[in-house]
Amino acid sequence: MSEPESDDDDRWVDIMMPHGAMRVPRNSPLGWVYAPDVVAERLTKQLSTGRMNWSLTPLCDLVWMLIPEARPFVAEEAKKELDWAIEHGKFLGVISDGEVVRHLRYDLIVPALGSPDGDDLIRRCLLVLWRMLSVDAEWYANMISLEITLPLLYEGWRSELNRLAPDLMTYMRNRVSEYEEMRKLYGDGSD
């Protein structure tokens, strides 16, 4: 292999490897996989689909990608699943989305509420939850309302949540209204 004639020679590409940066021919296996434009395209695809190459669950994937502050407890939940499967000689199961949502609430959202620097973090957390409604509206709407919105509303954070995530809060209010209407028509099932 010959060295590149100039820095702007498009036959070569600088790539980042675990041991550091290196220059390789663009038209080589390393160039095909690790060229910055190829990596950026893969990352963009993962963000747009909301799924990582190594997928945990749709919720955990989005949490991992959009809320770096949550990565330690997503990793903790993954480790619990790995340890359980090893200990019991079982196949891997899915990580509990409910546990991850509880971590979002208690470890990130609640401490950030009322903090001048907390708005961005809360918005990202609520954005992930809002996006999950398109995956399985019924399941995630129940989880979000039971674990996040209703408790926070009862704790007096209504105006803050409405300010930070108006679309999510409107959706959740409409959902509660629909539930109340169904209860009036059909009862609450406690015959």
UniProtKB/TrEMBL annotation:
What protein name applies here?
Answer: Uncharacterized protein
